[in-house]
Amino acid sequence: MFGESIIDYQLIRAKLGRIAVLTQAGRQFSYAVATLMAKGQGQMEASMVKAYVCRAAEWVTRESMQIHGGMGYAEEYEISRLFVDARVLSIFEGADETLCLKVIARQLIADSQQD
Ligand SMILES: Cc1cc2nc3c(=O)[nH]c(=O)nc-3n(C[C@H](O)[C@H](O)[C@H](O)COP(=O)(O)OP(=O)(O)OC[C@H]3O[C@@H](n4cnc5c(N)ncnc54)[C@H](O)[C@@H]3O)c2cc1C
To answer: Where does ligand 1 bind, in terms of residues with CB under 6 Å?
Structure first.
């Protein structure tokens, strides 16, 4: 852009930093929940991590497409496909609202009523 590589723009670097934060948070959260599930626990946390990483994937792929500009929207570029694929993640295998309502909120309320 204007004779410079866009990686030299601070705003692009900030986007990369935020993308890395969300990706690493999702990765660590997934490992923590996998550890719980290996012990036969973590049913609510499994729904939490599903809800979180699916939304994070939408944001991360959106920002990634933004970085690529108009070319990122073109079907020839992989980021275009990743953005479309990320959108379905919060629908299938448990819609976001259903997970939050029927698993997470239900468990939180049940736990609070036991105290
Ligand atoms: C690409 C793709 C592949 C799929 N593959 C499979 C597969 O291999 N096997 C399989 O069995 N299924 C598969 N599905 C189906 C998938 O599991 C369902 O689409 C998913 O469970 C959501 O159900 P639904 O489409 O009937 O939407 P609905 O359940 O009708 O949801 C529609 C909307 O209503 C909301 N909603 C639903 N209930 C509530 C509530 N109580 N309160 C508030 N909001 C609510 C949802 O959050 C959503 O926004 C696939 C779907 C897609 C898109």
So the answer is: 88, 91-93, 95, 97-98, 101
Ligand 1 centroid, distance to 98 Cα (angstroms)? 9
In the three-class reduction of DSSP (H, G, I as helix; E, B as strand; rest coil), residue 94 is classed as coil
Rounded Cα distance between 92 and 51, Å, is: 11
Task: Kindly report the average pLDDT of the chain as a whole number.
Answer: 96
Per domain, the residue ranges of the chain are 6-114
Is the pLDDT score of 100 beyond 80?
Answer: yes
Domain 6-114 has CATH 1.20.140.10: yes
CA of 93, closest atom in ligand 1: 17
Residue 56 confidence (pLDDT) = 98
Two tokens at 97? Answer: 């609202």
Question: How far apart are alpha carbons 109 and 93 in whole angstroms?
Answer: 23
The pLDDT tens digits of the residues spanning 30-43 come to 999 999 999 999 99
The per-residue pLDDT for 1 is 83
Please give the positions annotated as active site.
93
- Cα 67 to averaged position of ligand 1 atoms, centre (Å): 31
